[in-house]
Structure formats: structure tokens, C-alpha cells
Fold this sequence. Notes:
Elements: E1 6-10, H1 14-25, E2 29-33, H2 37-56, H3 63-67, E3 70-73, E4 84-87, H4 93-106, E5 113-116, H5 123-127, E6 136-141, E7 150-155, H6 161-174, E8 178-181, H7 190-206, H8 212-223, H9 229-236, H10 238-252, H11 261-268
Parallel strand pairs: 1-2, 1-4, 2-3, 4-5, 5-6, 7-8
Antiparallel strand pairs: 6-7
Amino acid sequence: MTSVENVGVVGCGLMGAGIAEVSARAGLDVVVVESSQAAAEAGRARLEASLQRAESRGKLDSAQEVLQRIRVETELDALADRGLVVEAIVEDEAVKVDLFKRLDQVVTAPDAILASNTSSIPIMKLGVVTSRPQQVLGIHFFNPVPVLKLVELVPSLLTSEETTTTARSFVEDLLGKRSILCQDRAGFVVNALLVPFILSGIRMMESGFASAEDIDQGLVLGAAHPQGPLALADLIGLDTTKAVAESLYEEFKEPLYAPPPLLARMVDAGLLGRKSGRGFYTYDKK
Ligand code: NAI
């Protein structure tokens, strides 16, 4: 089994920054690629803020020392020498397919693994556009990445055993997380169960059955959930929630996965949850 020695991450948003952070905290050298200089700066600021927070809470000795292991770049070529690249860009199949084609050209190490953090896009669609589908798999982290222990490993029908073993060793032995193995089906294990639950909460609110606060309180106090479905949708991002629901609906054609109109209208309005400052609740925009 080859072991991962350095990591590339594409996208330095909510998830990409988290994946870069946990990889660098595990002692790995990390290169992150963003789509523009402005996005790279925002990503770097996101990383710094998270690491400073960890340092001030006593969970990390030196944010600076970890930051030294992370470079944020804007050209994909910066990933040429990476042993593992994790893609964490927008949840859009066409955009991800295009990126995987380009990664296949750019990443030169013959046994490099090309992974996607996608929540719902079939890994096969990304694998087959590369010359090395046996080295493509899903490594699906959970938000917030530095906090949540779970990672879903998603080999496609063409992924090699060795790729899955190397990826498992990366997430478990290096990052200290727990992994579960899932079939290459939209939503994997967690979102296939969680997304219909969130959509039911949105439909309940949309129909006027109960307020957002009461729905969330109901689940927190009555079912011991750490947060209710609408607060959770705000945390995930309403655009991401809608995109994942659409992929699930596309895959299974079950009404329970169809995004409710209210969710679509909120996304159109730019009400994306915590990241935009307003979703089902209002937040101080950081
Ligand atoms: P986000 O919108 O916070 O970040 C996406 C980042 O990718 C942005 O900073 C954007 O500038 C960058 N980007 C877009 N196209 C790019 C390109 N071609 N090259 C380089 N950078 C590019 O989105 P988020 O929430 O981080 O989601 C990313 C992925 O992770 C999606 O596939 C999503 O489904 C998945 N995911 C999201 C979770 C969540 O709770 N938000 C949980 C688990 C997976």
C-alpha cells in the first residue's frame, strides 16, 4: 500500500478549508487551489480564522506552525506533485467533470489518488473522464471538518482495492477519523437518510404547520438532536442542500428527495444560510 505524503485540495470554501486544515494539522504538506485571487485570499482568511480559534481554545499549540504547511494557489498546475488530491468545489456535475479532466492532465504522480468530497454526484461520472478511474474515489467529509469524526469512503465500480485501502489509511491513521464504506449511490449513507429529513422540515414550515423555531426545538428537545433540520440546512448551506436533494431525486426519482419550492426560492434569493448571513435564521456575517 502506498501512503499519502502530501495533499492537494481544490476549493477553499467551507469544506476545502476544513480538509486542508485537518491535513496540515496531521503534519502533511498541503496545496490548496482556488478559482481566483480573491477566493484564494478569502480561503486563506478562513483557514487562519479556524486555526486561530483552535489555538485560542487550547486545541492547537501553534496556528502559525500549521499554516506554514499550507499554500493557497490559483493555478491547478500547483497540484502536479500531489499524492492525493481532494476536490471540494461547487456541487455541480458539469463543473466537477471538467475539473477531473484537468486534474488527470495536471497531476503527474502515476499512483496519485484523485478524490471528490461530493455529497451526491456519482463517483463513476468523475472516474470515467480520467485515464485512471481505478485511482478515483469519494472521500466525503462532514461539516465542520475539524470537528466531525466521520468520513464516507466511496469507491466506484472501477476503483481499485489499493486506492480504497490507501484512502482509508489517510483518513483513519493520518487524520484520526473514522470511515464507513458506502456504495457509489447518490447521498451515500448519511445524506440519503438526512436530506429527506431536512426537506420534510422545510415542507412542514412551508405549509405553515409550525415555525422554524418550533420545528427545530421539537427535534432538539424531543428527539435529542444536537440541532433541528432547518438550523442544520443553514449550516450546510441552502444551495448545497438543494443541489444534494436534486442529485438524490435524479438518482432515485422519489418525491421525498424533491427540493421543496421554498428551498428553491430561498436559493434564488441568495438566502444561503450561515454563509450568506441569512437562511431560515439570521446570522452575523463573519
Ligand atoms: P463552498 O461554496 O463553501 O466552497 C466551494 C469553493 O470552491 C468556493 O470557495 C469556490 O470559489 C471554489 N471553486 C469553485 N470552482 C472552483 C474551481 N474550478 N477551482 C477551484 N476552486 C473552485 O462549498 P462547500 O460547502 O465547501 O462544498 C464543496 C463540496 O463539498 C461540494 O461538492 C459539497 O457537496 C461537498 N460537501 C459539502 C458539505 C457541507 O456541509 N457544505 C458537507 C460535505 C460535502
